[in-house]
Amino acid sequence: MALRWPGIHTQQEVPTCDVGGVRQNTEVIGIRGFWSALPTEGRWLLSTVAIQTLGRGLTLPFTIIYLHEVRGFDLGLSGGLMSLIAIVGLIVTGPGGTLIDRFGARKILLIGLAAMIAGCTLLAFATHPAVAAVALVLIGVNFGVSWPGFNALIAAVVQGDLRQQYFGVNFALVNLGIGVGGIIGGFYIDVDSPETFTVIFLVDAISCLVPVALLLGPLRHVRTQAAHNDDAPPVGGYREILRQPAVLWLTLLTFLAMFIGYGQLEAGFPAYARQVAEVSTRVVGLAFAVNTAVIVLLQFIVLRRISGHRRTRVMWVMAAVWAVAWLALGFAGLLPDSVAAAIGVLAFMGIFAFGETLLQPTVPAIYNDLASDHNRGRYNAINSAAFQGGAITGPIAAGLLLDWGLNEVFIIIMVVSCVGIGVLAAALERRIPASANGVPQPETASADAAPEQR
């Protein structure tokens, strides 16, 4: 398939770590053209994403089942242990971003992956809560550095509009790997056979060797931190970055999107589906399968449609789509234990997934277009912290509201929050540089303007 990429230079002409101030005006035609436009390092990264996340998909849905039903820890303790991953990840994210800017993403990611391998291996044989706690803390360390680390690595390898496309395709492949892993794990594990859980945690540890091999091999020369002789002055710490209006509004938007989005997928949605809509666990499981399928099937199509459009406007559409999704789930709650309720639950996940395909390519791209090589790790750490903050507080709010029987209030809060995302996106649009908002810039634009745009 023929494809023109205006403004995109060959890999030899553009250094992989040069993020520059000039945006590329690209036109997405198809997967083959996207693949051919990627530099070699980008192809290495993307070609292994599904394999890397397959192991995580094997264990992610079943860890609490393993702790409670296989190792015999009570449910409250098991939930507390599971929370260690998010808590440690949130604590580690800030220092991790600073270390990425100082030493480079590659070194910090290797440390995180080593912690992940040790954690998964230890968890496979954890018969005591203290051992499980240490294992989950190690896994949390990796979670804290992997998001800002890999995002910084991606931003160093791909540029311009191609970067937005990359984040979207990467998101689809992550979902594919986790989804396939979850299906395989569901068929393989048996609570009466503890050794099956030992196997999946060891496979999760082994899957981490794939990115380790990439970082020590094909990606060993990729540099994310600024060169010591760079003429641009280093940017200050987190406080100075967050004082920038664009970053502050973007961080608030990210937190709210995670609060009503991923913060509810693991708690609010399944709880509402079971307790209010009264659908079976099979319907809930099928809903997650629908979510993965929609993302995998639609992500590249969505990327073609949003290319060249303002990212803040894409967020408006995403907010509207998520509002419709929550209304569909609210409809399911009005007709409990019925076919209509099941349809409403499945529709929620399908519509919500469509919104995800709009969110995931845009937000990481904005953060990285606002950043420079001096502070890219910290920008991505702020993104990660906002994500994790929403993912932690979302389930707490959902649990309280649904436990108090405020089912309608729960849906109303979700819909109103979608409106809030639209308001925040409008505020962000007035404060963000056009180059970071996905507006194509003339190829002849001077790169000297880049520091001012950031």
TrEMBL record:
Keywords: Cell membrane, Membrane, Transmembrane, Transmembrane helix, Transport
Domain Major facilitator superfamily (MFS) profile, chain residue ranges per copy: 28-432
One GO CC term, this protein: plasma membrane
Species assigned in the record: Agromyces albus
Domain of life the protein comes from: Bacteria
Membrane topology: Multi-pass membrane protein
Protein's UniProt name: MFS transporter
Taxonomic placement: Bacteria, Bacillati, Actinomycetota, Actinomycetes, Micrococcales
Transmembrane segments: 75-96, 108-126, 132-154, 166-189, 195-216, 246-263, 283-302, 314-333, 339-359, 380-402, 408-428
Gene Ontology MF annotations: transmembrane transporter activity
PROSITE patterns, sorted: MFS
Places the protein is found: Cell membrane
